[in-house]
Amino acid sequence: MKRSRGFRFPRTAKGMFLSGFLKNPVMVGSIIPSSDRLIRKMLGRVDWQNTRLFVEYGPGVGTFCQPILDKLAPDAMLLAIDTNPDFVAYLKETIHDPRFHVVCGSATDVERFVADAGFDHADYIVSGLPFSTLPPGVGDQILGATHRVLRIGGAFLVYQYNPSVRNFIARQFARIDHAIEFWNVPPAQLWWAWKE
């Protein structure tokens, strides 16, 4: 008699996302992926002509990955960093682009991952990590490493559901632009933190 392994979500983007949320809601942050409108607005301020390395923290099932790859130059790279090995495996299976590189690890180690990829800085970093619910000290480590690895004129693009996260970002970034995307569930706060 076969033993049941329990219910498994289908290996689709929605199934993987819901499974990841249920396994670790503190790290995933939302039960559904970001809307197309949020993605377009978040990426709308990127200077694509001068972007050689774009980094994403917590790509999940790749909601931002293809829109970023669609804009990246042929000689540029998207480096995605996720702590969830299921998401990393899914991205490796579904995104077949030589400019895409995904690693399993923490955004606290972004400087090492950027160096390992052959770059000395990142031009832009996008993150939907839920900073307000990360373990104590982890958010500060990520923020410090992010500021160090960004080039002057680059930006840290952050979308969150907690408006107080702006105060957290302001610990490292003086110039922060803000918008709200209401056509998202739930409505999202968007910040562009520029390194000057």
Q: Which descriptors would you attach to this protein?
A:
196 residues; alpha/beta; 8 helices; seven-stranded mixed β-sheet; 7 strands; globular
Q: What is this structure, in a nutshell?
A:
This protein is 33% helix and 24% strand.
How are the elements arranged and paired?
Blueprint: H1 13-23, H2 25-28, H3 36-43, E1 53-57, H4 65-71, E2 77-82, H5 85-94, E3 100-104, H6 110-116, E4 122-127, H7 138-149, E5 150-160, H8 165-169, E6 175-181, E7 188-194
What does this structure look like?
With 196 residues, the chain is an alpha/beta fold. The chain has eight helices and seven strands, in the order αααβαβαβαβαβαββ. Helix content is 33%, strand content 24%. Strands 3-2-1-4-5-7-6 form a seven-stranded mixed β-sheet, with helices on both faces. Helix 4 links the parallel strand 1 and strand 2. The N and C termini lie far apart (65 Å). Mean pLDDT is 87; it is low at 1-10 and 25-31.
| Main beta sheet strand tally, sense and closure | 7 strands, mixed
Report the helical percentage.
Answer: 25-40%
Please state the overall shape, judged from the principal axes of the Cα atoms.
globular
The secondary structure category is alpha/beta
- SSE series: HHHEHEHEHEHEHEE
Overall radius of gyration: 16 Å
- Could you report the average pLDDT, rounded to the nearest whole number? 87
- How many β-strand runs? 7
As laid out across the biggest beta sheet, the strand order is 3-2-1-4-5-7-6
- N-C termini distance: 65 Å
> Runs with pLDDT <50, length 5+?
1-10, 25-31
Number of H- or I-type helical stretches: 8
**Approximately what portion of the residues adopt beta-strand conformation?**
15-25%
